[in-house]
Write a structure and sequence with these properties.
Blueprint: H1 2-15, H2 22-42, H3 55-62, H4 64-96, H5 100-115, H6 118-129, H7 134-141, H8 155-179, H9 184-191, H10 196-224, H11 228-233, H12 241-251, H13 255-279, H14 298-315, H15 335-348, H16 350-354, H17 371-377, H18 380-412, H19 419-431, H20 434-448, H21 454-477, H22 483-490, H23 495-506, H24 508-523, H25 527-532, H26 540-550, H27 554-580
Helix pairs in contact: 2-13, 2-18, 2-19, 2-20, 2-21, 4-8, 4-10, 4-15, 5-8, 5-15, 5-27, 6-8, 6-27, 8-10, 9-10, 10-13, 10-14, 12-13, 13-20, 17-27, 18-21, 18-24, 18-26, 19-21, 21-24, 22-23, 24-27
Length: 581
């Protein structure tokens, strides 16, 4: 017995060594946990003397303007999450009915705006919603309006821009849950006499509810830290908490008060996660428990059933009107096409503007020219920013893939008690609003001399990219046959040989996809760059941010086209690799 245990222990250690996650844990501990702890400590310290004080929190409570900013932030985040889920649910349902091959192709249209820079998307909406923009020009030409509608610099413009940015995240969160629902359940309900409305509201929708709730949670948390869309599409009445944090750090240099505002964002995000966990359980995000709710939610369950029965009763008269297209509730007509148009059209509108011969943003262009691309390619500032973005993105892709990949391997079969905390730590940069991560990093790197360095940018971008690499490679590992490693070891192969000749080749598609997603995450990232670049090591998104504040011109459209083409090519390559795998 003892001999068998001794033989099994080294083998188990080789299969899932928890120490493979230590490099990622060390990076996150130094550049994530430590800056976050110091930032929160600043909120209860006097900036001059270093003594503990509550005056900064008292200032938030006593100053009406910050209460208004808090209310605005919560209202916009809630509305964004609500509309993203409501508009994204039918699109996700439509995608879930497709065959896997076609679904992957159409989902690419959703992935494109998801991975496209917020700056590019915001710039596109400025072209569409401006007083002389595409929509106002079109409405006036056809005689619908006599004067331009005010579609920008108000809450309407902010909600449109933010829903456009968050709706792909909602769809991609709900889709895996819907793919995991057994469609035979709806068919069985139909054979027992249930109408289409009853099959949808009483069978299908409850099974998909955890995915919808997860989508609402993620979009709400992400929206809390928004500042790009409100800065360009909103006015003073749409100032959000992230904008106030940037002002406190860059203009007023009040670190203590900025730390208080950052703490409010983090506490709100954690409270949202706690509420979701109480209602659905965090494991429901993956869809593995989509058919059950915790027993402690019996009151919620009973109330929900009454609401669903009422919805089935209300929608029953429309069963005869709606075209039949599946067993889960009828067709959706042309809505999915309008939803895809809403996601893709703003990106496409940038292309004709980039080739315009005019000196301003006019649509349709009076003529076409390559002058703005020539101006972009002949500008030392733009070229330096582009080269730096590529260099930082390649370095980030390598570091994040290695660290995230090793962490995924370590936790793939580990039964260590540390598995849960390490898993939560690796995913934490996805939960904490990016503006908070950026401020904490800036405070630390300013003291160790990494501000305005490429190394500082790589570290910051790697923190944000590690969760994506970890999730991507971890998803591939779920279908990995570990018996191949066992067989190789019984034949005398060493640990390094098994990794090099078996594990890595079989995981190659997932590893390359993770690297590509990490590259896109870094290439389009702005929040970290605003603080860490220091105005000297400018990246392409940071240069676009600076120019958009100075003057909107077709050069920005040309740069946006370059970014869109790069992101599209990377997504196509990633999809091709997944199909090959």
């Amino acid at each position: 017995m003892r001999t068998a245990q001794n033989l099994a222990s080294p083998k188990q250690f080789r299969l899932g060594p928890i120490w493979l996650a230590l490099p990622a844990v060390a990076l996150l501990a130094i550049f994530f946990l430590f800056p976050m702890a110091r930032l929160f400590l600043l909120g209860v310290q006097d900036q001059a003397t270093g003594t503990f004080t509550s005056e900064h929190y008292a200032r938030v409570l006593d100053t009406p303007v910050y209460w208004r900013i808090l209310v605005i932030t919560f209202r916009i985040a809630i509305l964004t999450a609500l509309f993203s889920v409501l508009l994204g649910y039918p699109l996700a349902l439509w995608l879930s009915r497709m065959k896997k091959g076609r679904q992957a192709t159409v989902a690419l249209l959703v992935l494109l705006p998801f991975w496209t820079s917020y700056l590019v998307k915001t710039f596109a909406w400025m072209i569409l919603l401006g007083n002389r923009g595409v929509l106002n020009t079109l409405f006036m030409d056809v005689g619908l309006i006599d004067r331009p509608l005010r579609l920008m610099y108000n809450e309407l413009g902010v909600i449109i821009g933010m829903v456009h940015a968050m709706m792909p995240l909602a769809v991609l969160t709900m889709l895996p849950v819907m793919n995991g629902i057994d469609q035979r359940l709806s068919l069985a309900a139909g054979t027992m006499g249930a109408s289409r409305s009853q099959r949808f509201w009483l069978v299908y929708f409850p099974l998909s509810a955890p995915g919808a709730a997860a989508a609402g949670l993620l979009t709400f948390i992400t929206s809390l830290g928004f500042f790009i869309v409100p800065a360009f599409l909103g006015g003073r009445g749409q100032t959000m908490l992230a904008q106030a944090i940037i002002t406190q750090v860059q203009e007023l240099v009040n670190w203590s008060f900025a730390a208080v505002l950052a703490s409010l964002l983090v506490v709100t995000a954690l409270a949202s996660i706690w509420i979701y966990n109480r209602l659905f359980g965090l494991s429901a995000i993956s869809g593995r428990e989509s058919n059950t709710l915790p027993n402690r939610n019996s009151v919620l369950r009973n109330s929900g059933r009454r609401v669903l029965r009422f919805m089935a009763w209300v929608s029953a008269p429309f069963d005869r009107i709606r075209p039949h297209s599946g067993a889960d509730g009828g067709g959706m007509g042309i809505y999915p096409l309008f939803a895809l148009a809403f996601l893709i059209a703003p990106l496409l509108i940038v292309f004709p503007i980039a080739f315009t011969s005019a000196t301003s943003l006019q649509f349709p262009p009076p003529g076409y020219s390559l002058r703005w691309f020539e101006q972009y390619l002949s500008s030392p500032v733009w070229l330096a920013a582009t080269v730096r973005s590529f260099g930082v993105a390649f370095a980030t892709a390598f570091c994040a893939t290695v660290l995230g990949g090793f962490a995924a391997l370590a936790l793939g079969r580990s039964r260590s008690l540390w598995k849960g905390p390490i898993f939560a730590l690796i995913l934490a940069p996805m939960v904490v609003p990016r503006i908070v991560v950026a401020v904490g990093l800036f405070y630390l790197m300013a003291q160790i001399g990494l501000v305005a360095t490429d190394l500082g940018l790589v570290i910051g971008h790697t923190l944000l990219a590690i969760p994506y690499c970890f999730i991507t490679i971890g998803a591939v590992l779920r279908s990995y046959d570990w018996r191949l490693n066992d067989a190789a070891e019984t034949l005398g192969a060493g640990r390094f040989t098994v990794m090099r000749r078996i594990t890595l080749p079989l995981l190659r598609g997932g590893i390359l996809s993770a690297a590509l997603f990490a590259f896109v995450t870094s290439f389009d990232e702005l929040t970290i760059a605003i603080f860490i670049s220091g105005g000297l090591k400018t990246t392409l998104p940071k240069q676009m941010w600076d120019d958009m504040f100075l003057q909107l011109n077709p050069t920005l459209a040309a740069v946006s086209v370059v970014v869109l083409v790069i992101v599209t090519l990377i997504l196509l390559i990633a999809q091709k690799m997944q199909k090959t795998r």
